[in-house]
Amino acid sequence: MQIEITDKAKIELVKLEIGGDQFLRIDIVPGGCSGMTYSAALDTELRESDEVLYQDADVRIVADGGSAMFLNGLKIDYSDDLIKSGFRFLSPSGIKSCGCGASFSA
User: Fold this and answer.
1) Which of 12, 30, 42, 87 is deepest in the core (most CB within 10 A)?
2) In which domain, by residue range, is 30 found?
């Protein structure tokens, strides 16, 4: 399982105080105009079905097994645009995405 985090995204994740027991959980959930969307939240409890997708000295990213299969090759970036700032999830697994980029289908 391979995902990439840009330097800008890693800086923003560290600002959220990710580290130690706290990690970023990414789930794929039904929703959006293309069928699936990303859900991301800080978490401290690993579940039996979780997979660690990324880990270094500062940041750990985890997903459940069902979501992980859609996340291989995911690139996490951060944009500080005035209109739409925040984390961006760019996935090569998405066959089709909606115009706003918030959802995809695979």
Assistant:
1) 12
2) 4-92
